[in-house]
Amino acid sequence: MGKYSVTGFIQDQWTSVPPVTTADLTGKTVMVIGANTGLGFEAAKHFARMKPKRLILACRSKEKGEAAIARLRKEAEYESAELWMIDLSKFSSVIEFADKFDKDGGRLDYLIENAACIQKSYDTTPDGWETTLQVNCLSLSLLALRLLPSMIQTGKNYATHPRLVVVTSEVHLWSNIDKNVFEGNDIYKTLNSEEFCTPAVMGTRYTDSKFLNIMFYQGLNERLPHSPVIVNGVNPGYCYSELRRGFTGVRAVFDWAMEKTLARTSEEGARQLVYAAVGGAEEDEDTMRGAYVSSGHVAEASDFAIGPDGKIVQDILWTEMMDILAKVDPCVREVERKYLTTPVE
């Protein structure tokens, strides 16, 4: 889908990462999904040093989440971190999380959707979806839609521009979903099918999920033309991460060698997340709307993702996704009716 060469990838990885962007977060609320380790924790630590009124760490593991809060107290001297539990492999957990925030009634200035997984083989969640597809794509989309009203209200109440940041990856440039899938009916249903999910397909499922993330945030941005909320996506680059902790055998050895020669630190990758959330204000802030952030600046997603054929696929995926999510949470249709518009051709 793109023209991203291995040489280009290596050059990007060896390019120095700009210093972390800082901002005054006094009185503001930051939420980081998947904040107990890796990129999520390092981003949370950067935010903590900017002293927001609230910093919500959304985690699946209570033990790891509490350890992260303890580390923030020690390493960032921050005492206002909150642990909220969420399991993206269960729609019910996402809905419960969103309902809790609705009742909490607070402002939400920055939402960093960072959590992801890599599955080596076909496996389904309790909801019947292939795990990577639900965790990396559908659940994060559901969470964004459910929290969107709070972010819009925050922007209106405080005359600010809250930001919703979707963490994607440069590997979306290597996504190569069969065009027959995009030309058929029920794209998500096909991608979820056990028959379709051969070992070869599962070998690129993470890559494909990052492409679907691009399709989501671009689609959401186009449906928020006059909203105070800024939606964008960010590529942190290839970093040391627990994301690949399940690798074994030759794949694990290859990844170890790649990390030693190419990987950024989790802290360096987290700087990209922070830039997508609070950077670019010195320019026209609208340049961050729908932007693909990489290496500390606005870059371009794949040719397909930003081209006319990609726009057609994006709209089909959006319609299918909304139908899927509305069945598990009727609030999705209410959000659509109240806050989203039809994209202008």
TrEMBL record:
<dbReference type="GO" id="GO:0016491">
    <property type="term" value="F:oxidoreductase activity"/>
</dbReference>
<dbReference type="Pfam" id="PF00106">
    <property type="entry name" value="adh_short"/>
</dbReference>
<protein>
    <recommendedName>
        <fullName>Short-chain dehydrogenase</fullName>
    </recommendedName>
</protein>
<dbReference type="InterPro" id="IPR002347">
    <property type="entry name" value="SDR_fam"/>
</dbReference>
<keyword id="KW-0560">Oxidoreductase</keyword>
<dbReference type="InterPro" id="IPR036291">
    <property type="entry name" value="NAD(P)-bd_dom_sf"/>
</dbReference>
